[in-house]
């Protein structure tokens, strides 16, 4: 299908899966003398803009780190502001049912209030047949938590006698992760001048190209994404070969 916008690199070179760490919201707000929650509100706007742009240029899988297993340590007011942004998004996303976009929630949903749990489950169910793009929201997500869950799940199968230890492969482990239906991450983008992965998609990013930039997430624009894609296209991905 013709794309709504021309990507900055040839379509066949586009990453199949881009992961975004939405960092720098607090600093963006502080610079403007605003409460941190204003930074998250603006960050949620950026999220929607970048989702739109990714779809327009033909990216098939995108994942956003919206809330980590560690983010519960933040002040109650900040946590509840982020929860409210998610609530609003779950309402808003209903307007996009014509977009042929699947929404998957990666993370431990049991940590959320019943309305959010139910909202996440409903949107996953109602969009599961869409095929043009998959939008993944990582919420109450932590890679170690995810991998611990996978190990526990496989151990239970071994204990039940349905899985032999020698049949545990990289593929079996991939299939026990939240991302079981997704390709590995090709490009991981972290704005805001921090150079770490912060427990995000550690297994899935084993061969991802990492891209860091100084822009704070609320200011991150399609131009910044273009710059990341151009840098990505210039990298020589060898996957351990020569
Ligand atoms: C990190 O910036 C950002 C978060 C912990 C939350 C990100 C969440 C959103 C942008 C809203 C999600 C909502 C939807 C609808 C997806 P930070 O607060 O750590 O920034 P700082 O490092 O400058 O303090």
Give an account of the 3D structure.
The chain is built from seven helices and six strands; from the N terminus they run βααβαβαβααββα. With 242 residues, it is of the alpha/beta class. It has a six-stranded parallel sheet, with helices on both faces. The mean pLDDT is 97. Bound molecules: farnesyl diphosphate.
Residue runs with pLDDT of under 50 for 5 or more positions: none
> Biggest sheet, strands in spatial order?
3-4-2-1-5-6
Task: Provide the structure class.
Answer: alpha/beta
Number of strands: 6
Number of discrete helical segments: 7
Helix content percent band: 40-55%
How widely separated are the two ends?
Answer: 35 Å
Q: What oligomeric state do these chains adopt?
A: single chain
Order of helices and strands: EHHEHEHEHHEEH
- Shape label: globular
| Major sheet | 6 strands, parallel
Radius of gyration from the alpha-carbon trace, in angstroms: 18 Å
Strand content: 5-15%
Bound ligands, named by name, code or SMILES: farnesyl diphosphate
* Average pLDDT metric: 97
